[in-house]
Amino acid sequence: MSEMTPRERVKCVLAGEIPDRVPYVENGVDYPFIAKLLKAELPEGQYFDSGEYESAPIETQLKVNEILHRDNITYHMLPPIPAIKVPGKDGILFFEDGKIKDWDDLELLHFPNPASEEFLKPAREAIAKSGDYARVCSCRVGISATYLAMGMLHFYYCLYDAPDLVQEVLRRYTDFSAAVAEQAAKLGFDMFWTSDDIAFRTGTLWSPEMFRQYMLPHVRKVADVIRDVGIPWVYHSDGNLTPILDELLALGIKVLNPIEPLCMDIRAVKKQYSDRIILSGNVDVDLLGAGTPEEVRETTLGLLRDVAPGGRYMLASGNSIASYCDIQCVKAMCDTVYEYGHYPINVRRATYGL
């Protein structure tokens, strides 16, 4: 098979076909890591707003892609989250508490108009500069934005004491997400990648019953728009999604990411759901930060050997490329999939020199 462009490679997998090699996709690459990788100075704080930040310039992303063999660029269309934030390591701001505590605080929620030229022009410019890379529009579904805007503890209290307030905040965020998905499809993005953490390692952040009652109807509204406009949906959530995985897949999710390796068995997920979902991820981000390049290489080879055959897999980290990730470990992951991820998969060459 002739070599594909990165965009062709990703679109081939999204179509359920087998590409020339396993794509490497990554939605989030922290700017402090980018600065270390490129040996560049950190820009001022605009990139460190705890995930709700401006997109790294496409020109910068292209330089990162050349080194890491990444197959996508990412443009963020993230919602505003009124919250109190505190600086952590590398100057990254982290959510400390939300500002939406009662109905009067809803006036703090100011959403841009996703159909406005002011909102769309930078996205068009990003696409124009993206070259042959797959184009990711990054947003949130709205669940995590809701609990971050309200503050996690207050959000849980309100689920019991003021569920109507939770519903209203969630409605506003999911309305925004649905409108962004529609515009992303019109602009020509290849994937709509939503990041909403709704689980920790032992299970969901709330009971499956509460998810079905309070959240699923709003998420279904976003899913309906995504289906209607025809843009492939990448659903990201850390944690163990097993208790609600069937409900999530029924929404029409195209790609599941990151299948956190410390609490989800990607091989078991592939065995049970391979005909319903494309898998992405599963290289432990802690391993990328505190492991060795050889350990990362062996993990990556295992995923190529066990998960990649038959297609429907895009390699990625088990979360994102965090600021604390080790450059040599990340490069070991990327170089391994670049060298040994070609179809038909044969990792025996790496293991035995064959």
Q: What does it look like?
A:
The chain is of the alpha/beta class and 354 residues long. The chain has a seven-stranded parallel sheet. Strands 2-3 form a two-stranded antiparallel sheet. A two-stranded antiparallel ribbon has the order 6-7. The protein is 45% helix and 12% strand. The mean pLDDT is 94. α5 packs across α6 (152-161), α7 packs parallel to α8 and α12 (293-306) packs parallel to α13 (327-340). The protein has one domain: Alpha-Beta Barrel (TIM Barrel).
Characteristics of this structure?
single chain; 354 residues; alpha/beta; TIM Barrel; seven-stranded parallel β-sheet; two-stranded antiparallel ribbon; 14 helices; globular
In short:
Helix content is 45%, strand content 12%. The protein has helices spanning 6-14, 31-38, 58-68, 117-128, 143-150, 152-161, 163-187, 208-229, 245-250, 266-273, 285-290, 293-306, 327-340, 348-352, and strands spanning 72-76, 83-87, 93-98, 134-139, 191-195, 199-200, 203-204, 233-236, 255-257, 278-280, 313-314. α5 crosses α6 (152-161), α6 (152-161) packs across α7 and α7 (163-187) packs parallel to α8 (208-229).
